[in-house]
Amino acid sequence: MIYQGMRIYSEDAVTNLLVCHTNLHLKKAAIADVNQFHSRDNISKPVVMRFDQITQLINKQGMKTQPYSYPAEMSFSDDELTRQKRSKWLSKRDTKFNRIYPISNESYINQYLYGDGLAEEVIELMKEQLEAAPDSAWRSRGAYYNALNRYIVFGSTPNALLPFGLKQCGSNYLHIEEPGEDNVKRGRGGADNRNSRSKSCGVTKKHKIQLQQVISCLKSSDGKFTFSRVRDVFNLNFQSHIIEREVDGITSRTYKAFDESQTISDDQIRYHFNQILSRAEFKKIKYGPLLYEKDHADRQGEAHDGVIGATHRYEIDATILDVYIRYEFDNSGRYTMGRPVLYLVIDVFSTMIVGMYLGFDGPNWQGASQAMVNACLDKVEFCGRFGIPPEAVNWPCAEIPVQVTVDNGNEHTNAVISSVLRSEIGIRAYNFVAVFRGDAKGIVERKFGVLNEQSIHFLAGSIPEKTERGEQHPSNRAEETYNSIAARICLEIMFHNNSANRIHKLDKNAIRSDIDITPQALYVHSLHQEMNGGRPSKNEDPGRIYWAFLPEETATVRSNGIHFEGLVFHSDYAKRAGWYQRARHNGAFKIPVKRPRDWSTHLWHKTPENEYICFSLKNTNSENPFIDTHWEPLMHLLEQFKDKSHQNKLNRRKLMATKQGLLDAIEAENRAQIAGIPESNRKSMQTGIKGKQALYKALLALYQMIDFHQTVADESLPETEHLSQQDDLDDELYL
Questions:
Q1: Nearest CA to 9 among 28, 40, 32, 29?
Q2: Which of 35, 9, 6 lies closest to 20, judged by CA?
Q3: DSSP states of 287-315 as a string?
Q4: Pick from 194, 211, 109: which is nearest to 150 by CA?
Q5: pLDDT tens digit string along 669-728?
Q6: What global pTM score does this model have?
Q7: What is the secondary structure of 660-675 as a DSSP string?
Q8: In a 10 Å sphere around its CB, with 0-12 CB exposed, 13-18 middle and 19+ buried, how is residue 352 labelled?
Q9: Nearest CA to 481 among 332, 356, 329, 319?
Q10: What is the pLDDT of residue 623?
C-alpha cells in the first residue's frame, strides 16, 4: 500500500524519495527527493506520479521501502520545544503558517499538486497581505511557494514549517589549526571581539591538544587532580615564556606570561576542560575508582462517503458504562472505583470494531488515543492480559489507518495532534469535532446499547433501568473488577465482529467472492481487495505507534531511575546514554514520555535522534501490585500508600513518646538503687566478674524452676480445690 510518509530508496542512496501526499481517488501521489533536502535551502515542488508507476519503481531490484523519519521536533509539543529553548522556532513557524494558511487546506493542496496550480490564488493572497501589513509581508511569490512546498513535503502540518536547519548552526565553524590573526574568539564580542572586555584569542586545535596533554599527565600522577591545577600547569607550560639564566654556575628559571591577545582565557580553558572530561569522569579521577563507585556512581538495582475500503477511516465514540467497578486493593469493604468509560474504534467501511479502551476519564482525546493504539496493535497479547487464551482470540485487525476522525481534544490542540499523527505514521486526521453522522456512529451507539442491555445490566453493581425507592445504591454492590469487565467487553466485541449481519454492505466483488456477511469477513476481504493488503502495524516500530497517538507527558530522570507518577522506571538506553550520571552530578531533569494508561509496566520516549525507547517498571515481579495494572486503580493504591505512610509517622511519634517514658522510669529506678553506693576509684578492670556472673545465672535458673513448678502445681489442682482454697484465704483476710 502506498501511503503518505513512505520512503522509497536504493541501497546506494542514489534514489531516495518520499511520498509526501496521496490522492486515493486519482490513484496518484506527490513525490519529493530526499537527497535535495540538505543540499538546498528551498524545497522544490513535489513531482506527481501514478500509483502504478510508484509500484513499478518499488518492485525494481535493489529498491526498499520504510516509513520516513521526519525530524523528531515535529512530534514534540510546544511545551517540550520551549523546554528545549526553541521558542523562537515556534514564532518562525507561526509566522510562516499564518501567511500560507488561506491556501493550506486539502482542496487547495490537491489543486496545487494535481490540478491547475495556485498562481492566481497566490497573487491575490500576496496583494491582501501587502495591503494589510506592508512592512512585514512577503514581496515575492516564491516565498509563498517555498513555504507551501515545505508544508506539503513534511506532512501538511504546521510543524512542517519549524526551522529544522537551525540545529546545524555552528557545525561549519572554521577550526583553526594554529594561533594567528584569523582565530578571533567566538561569542558576543562582535566579529573582531571589539565589544568584549577580554581580548583573548580564539581556541585552536593546538590549544585543545595541549590541554588534553596536561589532563592526561595530571590524571595519571599521584598529586591532587583539580581544575585549578590543570589551568595553572597549562598556563605555565603553554601560555608563558620560560627564561633560563645562569649566574655563578646556578641556573634560574623565570616565567613571563604571554600577552592577553596571544592566550586563551580561564573561562575558555574551563569550557574545553569540561568538553574533554565529563563530570563523572572528573570525579572518578578526583576520588579514585573505588571511592567513586562507592559514593558517586549512579545506582540501579466522516461517514461512509468517500471511504474506499477497510482501514481508510477509523472513527471513535465513547460512553459511560452502566456498572460500577470494584476496587480490588481493599477488602475491608465493598468499595468501587466508579463507572468506567468505554471507547470503541470502528472501521467505517466494514463496521468492524477494531479497537477499544476501558478507562475512567473523559470522554476526551486522551482516552480516544489509547483506543487508537489498541486498534493498531495485535490483539492476542492484549486479550491475554485479561485471561483470554490465545486460541480463543479471533480479532484479526492490527492495521494503521489512512484517516482518523475523533472528538475534539481538550488536553492537546488540534495542531499538535495532527502534527504528530502525520509526522509519525502518515495518518491524515481531518476532523477533530463531533462530526459523526449516519450509519457509522449509529452502529457504535447501538453497540453501546447492546452492551448495556444484554450484558452489563445483568452484572452485580449495574444500574437498573428502574430503581425502586429505598433500594440500595448499585455502587454498594460492585463485584466486577477492571480485568473482568475488560474481558467481557473483548468477548462481546469478537462476538459482534463475527456475528453481526452486514449483507447490505456487500459490493459486487464481495458477492462474487462469496464471503460471509459479518463485519470481520467484510473487513478482511476489503483489506486485500481495495486497500492492497493494508498497512500492518507489525512492519512498524511499536514505539512509533505509541508515540503517534498517546498524549505527551513529562517524567523526571534521577540518579536511581526515571520517575513518573510515583513509580520508578528503567531502561538500558538511559544507562548507556549516561542519564543517571548526569542526574546525579548535575541534578534531575525532565524528558517527554507517553504512557499506555491501561498498562502500567511500560513508558515510551522518543529521542532527538528518532529512536523509540521503552522504559520498564523497576523491580517487577509477580507480587508487585504496580505491574500490569490500569493506572486508575494504581493511583488509588498510591494514595492509600501515602495515607499509610502518614499514619505510620503519627504512630511512630506516639510510640516514641511512650518508649521514652518507660526508659525514663527505668533510668530513675537505676539511679535510686545506686544512690547510696559509693563510686569506685579503681582504674584497672574489676576482679570477680565471672564469679558474680555465675551467681546471677544460678539465681535466674532458680527463678525459672520455681515458676515452672508453680505452673505445674496450679494446672494439677481441681477447680473445686482452687475455689475452697480461695474461700479459706478470703476468710483469713477478713476475720
A1: 32
A2: 6
A3: H-HHHHHHHTS------STT--STTSEEE
A4: 109
A5: 888 888 888 888 888 888 888 888 888 888 888 888 888 888 887 766 565 554 444 455
A6: 0.66
A7: HHHHHHHHHHHHHHTT
A8: buried
A9: 329
A10: 62
259 DSSP assignment: P
At 702, which amino acid appears? L
Containing 517, the helix (H) or strand (E) segment is none
Residue 698 CB neighbours (<10 A): 10
* DSSP symbol at 464: -
pLDDT of amino acid 552 = 86
Round to whole Å and give the CA distance between 183 and 181.
6
Residue 550, all three cell numbers = 498517546
Residue 241 burial (CB < 10 Å; 0-12/13-18/19+)?
A: exposed
Closest by Cα among 315, 389, 352 to 499 = 352
Pairing between β-strand 341-347 and β-strand 353-359 as defined by DSSP bridges: antiparallel
> Quick one: how far is CA 503 from the chain centroid?
44
In this prediction, residue 50 has a pLDDT band, given cuts at 50, 70 and 90, of very high
CB 615 within 8 A of CB 571: yes
Place of cell 546525579: 584
In which element (H, E) is residue 131 found? Answer: helix 119-132
Q: pLDDT tens for residues 345-377? A: 889 888 899 999 988 877 777 788 888 889 988
Cell numbers that stand for 714 in this block? 496450679
pLDDT more than 90, % of the chain = 16
Residues 277, 545: Cα–Cα separation, whole Å:
38
pLDDT exceeds cutoff 70 at 516: yes
The C-alpha atoms of residue 313 and residue 428 are separated, in whole angstroms, by 9
The x, y and z cell numbers of residue 105, run together, are 487546506
First to last CA, the chain: 111
Q: Which three cell numbers stand for residue 217?
A: 599527565
For cell 494504581, name the residue: 634
As given in the structure block, the three cell numbers for residue 600 are: 502500567
Beta-carbon contacts of 141 under 8 Å, excluding residues fewer than 6 positions away, are: 119, 122, 123, 126
The grid coordinates listed for 459 are 452484572
Give mean pLDDT, residues 197-225. Answer: 82
CB 231 within 8 A of CB 266: yes
| Closest C-alpha to 570, from 618, 605, 606 | 618
Residue 630 CB neighbour total at 10 angstroms: 23
585 in Cβ contact with 280 (< 8 Å)? yes
Chain segment 567-589, per-residue pLDDT in tens:
899 988 998 889 999 999 889 99
Q: What is the mean pLDDT of the chain?
A: 80
Angle CA 137–141–147, to nearest 5 = 80
Nearest 10 degrees: Cα torsion 401, 403, 408, 413? 90
Give me the residues paired with residue 554 across strands.
Answer: 592
Give the tens place of pLDDT for each residue, 69-108: 888 888 888 888 888 888 888 999 999 999 999 999 889 9
Q: How far apart are CA 642 and CA 92, in angstroms?
A: 46
Looking at residue 268, its pLDDT comes to: 86
- Please give the angle made by the CA atoms of 107, 113 and 119, to the nearest 5 degrees: 85
Place of cell 537551525: 166
Reduced to 3 states, what is the DSSP secondary structure of residue 297? coil
Using CA atoms, how far apart are residues 162 and 88, in angstroms rounded to an integer?
A: 10
Q: Domain map of the chain by residue range?
A: 6-167, 205-296, 313-465+473-542, 552-634
Homologous superfamily of domain range 313-465+473-542: Ribonuclease H-like superfamily/Ribonuclease H (3.30.420.10)
List the beta strands (DSSP E) in 321-361: 325-326, 336-338, 341-347, 353-359
Task: Name the residue with cell 495518518.
Answer: 427
In single-letter form, the type of residue at position 511 comes to I
Is pLDDT larger for residue 334 or for residue 431? 334
